Amino acid sequence: MVYVWQLVISMCIGEAARIEMTHSWSDCDERSPAPDWVEVWTQSFKDLRTNRPITYLRTNVDTNRCNEFFMYFPEFDDYVKLQYGSGYDDVYEHARVTFCYFKSPGGYADFCKVQKKGEMWNYVAKSVRRQCMAKLCNYAKTGKWKAGWFKQKAAKSMAWKSEMPGHKSYGYKDVFKYKCWHGPKSYGDLLGFDDVFADHYDLTTPSGTFNKKVCGCRSADDCTGHYKPGELYHRSG
Fold this sequence. Notes:
The protein is of the alpha+beta class. It is built from five helices and 13 strands.
C-alpha cells in the first residue's frame, strides 16, 4: 500500500489548536483490506459557513467502494474503515468534491473491532503477530523491560524471564499481554501466547527465558554490541 501523506496532528484555525484523535469501534468483517494501489494524502476543503479550512486524510478509492475496504493506519498501529465524505475545494469554493477518507476534521476515525473468530482476523493475524514480535524485540534490545532507566543497559545482557510478580519490571509474557494493544482488546489475548505465538517464533529457551537470538542478538541472553543485519527477527510471518 502506498502512503503519500504526512499526518498533521495540529493545524491553524484562527489560532493554533491541538487536534486530538477521537474514534469509534466498528465491525469490519464484511470488508476487505484496501488494495496496494490505494494512496492516502491530506487535503483541505473550505467550510462555506465559516470560510475556514477543514482537513481530511483522504484516499483515491472511488466513492462507490468506500464501504468495501478497511486499511492499516500506521501512526496508531491500527485498522480503520474507509468512509464517504464530501467538501468544497479550497481553491474553487463552489466545486463540491466527494471522496473516501479515513480521518476527518477533529481527528475522528472509525476503527475496526478485530475479533478472533471474525472474518477480518484472517486478514490481519499475520500483521498482528509481526507487530507484537517487533514490540518484544524492542524491549529485549533496549532493556526497557527492566524497571529503572539506569538498569536498562545491564538488562540488555540479562536473561529475560517470562513474568516478574511483585516487580515493576515486565516479564516477556507481561509485554506480550499488556503492550501489544488493539484498542480495548489486547493483541496478546487474540493471539494466545503458548499455542500460536511462542512456538511460531521459537521464543523461549530450554530454561524458559526469552530467546533474544530471534531478535538478531548475539546470544539468547545478550543484546549488547552489534546486531545481525536485516530483519528484527528471523521469522517473517
